[in-house]
Amino acid sequence: MTEPIDELVLDGNAVAGALSEIYGDDMTTVLAECASCGNTDYIGELLAFVQAPGIVLRCTACTTVVLRIVQHPRGARVDVQGKRIPPPPKT
Fold it and tell me: What 8-state DSSP symbol labels residue 13?
């Protein structure tokens, strides 16, 4: 039997469009290092949760939140505190 949470999990490729809008490039092939455990994965391989008011990407090894994106009328808020990749460009 599948855990209910498993049905909510996608991979980071599911948020490629949102990341491209924010960063202006394909981010799914960028390596991200988890600030908690040090595991390194491509952003496209991270665990993606998109059913909430925002997007959450989690580490595949320890499930720590690596990246959060929340869209609002004036743009997007991106929290990259859980990963070691550059923040989005200033607009």
Answer: G
Q: From residue 8, how far is each of 33, 52, 64 by CA, in Å?
A: 23, 10, 16
**Tens of pLDDT along 9-21?**
898 899 999 999 8
Domain coverage including residue 9: 4-79
The answer to whether 56 and 66 have CB atoms below 8 angstroms apart is no
Write down the pTM of the prediction. Answer: 0.81
Task: Note the pLDDT of residue 88.
Answer: 63
Say if 42 falls within a structural domain.
yes
33 within a domain of the structure (yes/no)? yes
Give the count of domains, the chain. 1
Element containing residue 22 per DSSP (H, E) = helix 16-23
